[in-house]
Design brief:
2 domains, 344 residues, alpha/beta, Nucleotidyltransferase, domain 5, binds zinc ion, 5-stranded mixed β-sheet, binds 5'-O-[(R)-(carboxyoxy)(hydroxy)phosphoryl]adenosine
């Protein structure tokens, strides 16, 4: 079964063709980084206009690279939230029209479900229960999956997302855009012990995160510090360790409690070198496999949407009528819901 996956949730226009939810035949990502760089963040209006310009050529290229035509496509999967509303509208509007014209099912995919399913594109399939740490520019969540499409939220951030604080601190440090990868690289050569960032105390849940305190602390250290090269490296290293320590702090407990048979990282921040190393060490200690997508599948892409769309279609069936296809809506704050199994 061939699925065309489309993601326009933020500032990347992505289209991919995936076979049977597992085999990536093409994965086109038209990045808008250069357009937003000078503003130091994504400008929503510019992002949606750019999606309009490049979405059709990106899909054509995805079909071409996969060596197929629209006639060979069995279903279209599209991100309908969460994300920037204007950006989502472009992808969903296009996908609806295409699915209607091609008379194929349209499968709506939650962006976080998409990130999680990037881990189903590798050689080894994860087993359930699977504990997922989803960390991106907009999300920091711990999600347990007992089976396909069953998502149980066990922890989430109370304020900023991990990617967001990486980007903010990196920007103030004068590093590149988006800042996460630059700060990560700089931190590799620094001493994390010079400026330590202890774990915050969070009232209520043992498994929730809070990154705004650590961000403020880093900005204050930056203001007061000497700003030499060595200082910047050490600050980056200490800050990165603080974020990663917090992200992994609940994981051992949750894996033991839930009997998880695998631990999976996903989302843009899963590209972080320290997070990958520390997660590997933890998984080894607990004797369970760690799943991390290759770099190009960590950040936003259409292949992960196509994979999630395939598994969702298998589970929920393609009962939506052509008219219902045209009524699909998108939402900037779409909540993650488990997929309803088709019993009909
Ligand atoms: O998943 P993604 O492409 O977009 C969202 O859905 O948000 O994630 C982008 C985020 C950005 O905040 C970026 O700085 C961060 O992922 N990121 C990293 C690294 N690579 C990307 N953060 C820390 N270390 C990295 N190596
Ligand atoms: Zn994302």
């Amino acid at each position: 079964m061939l699925i065309l996956g489309i993601d326009t949730s933020c500032d990347d226009t992505s289209c991919a063709v995936v076979k049977d939810g597992r085999q990536v035949l093409s994965n086109i990502v038209a990045s808008q980084t250069k357009l937003h760089e000078k503003f130091g963040g994504v400008v929503p209006e510019i992002a949606s206009r750019r999606h309009l310009e490049v979405l059709v050529p990106a899909c054509q290229e995805a079909l071409q690279q996969a060596g197929v035509t629209l006639k060979d496509i069995d279903g279209i999967a599209v991100t309908n939230g969460p994300g920037l509303l204007g950006s989502l509208l472009v992808g969903v509007g296009f996908a609806k029209a295409l699915a209607y014209a091609a008379k194929v099912p349209l499968i709506d995919v939650h962006h976080i479900a998409g990130h999680i399913y990037a881990n189903f594109l590798g050689e080894t399939l994860p087993e359930f229960p699977l504990l997922n740490l989803v960390v991106s520019g907009g999300h920091s969540e711990l999600i347990l999956m007992e089976s396909h499409g069953q998502f149980r939220l066990l922890g989430e951030t109370r304020d900023d997302a991990a990617g967001e604080v990486f980007d903010k601190v990196a920007r103030e440090m004068g590093l590149g855009y988006p800042g996460g990868p630059y700060l990560d690289r700089l931190a590799e050569t620094g001493d994390p012990a010079r400026i330590p960032f202890p774990l915050p105390k969070i009232r209520g849940s043992r498994y929730d995160y809070s990154f705004s305190g650590i961000k403020t602390r880093a900005l204050l250290e930056l203001e007061a510090g000497e700003k030499s090269e060595a200082f910047m490296r050490d600050l980056a290293a200490g800050f990165r360790k603080g974020v990663v320590d917090q992200l992994l702090n609940p994981v051992e407990d949750l894996i033991r409690q839930t009997g998880a048979r695998g631990f999976a990282l996903s989302g843009g921040v899963a590209a972080n070198r320290l997070l990958r190393r520390e997660s590997q060490a933890l998984a080894q200690k607990l004797n369970i496999p760690l799943f991390v997508p290759p770099m190009e599948l960590c950040t936003d892409n259409g292949a992960m949407i196509a994979s999630a769309g395939y598994y969702k279609y298998k589970l929920t069936g393609g009962s939506r009528s052509q008219l219902e296809t045209l009524l699909l809506e998108c939402s900037a704050g779409l909540p993650l819901r488990s997929w309803e199994v088709d019993v009909g």
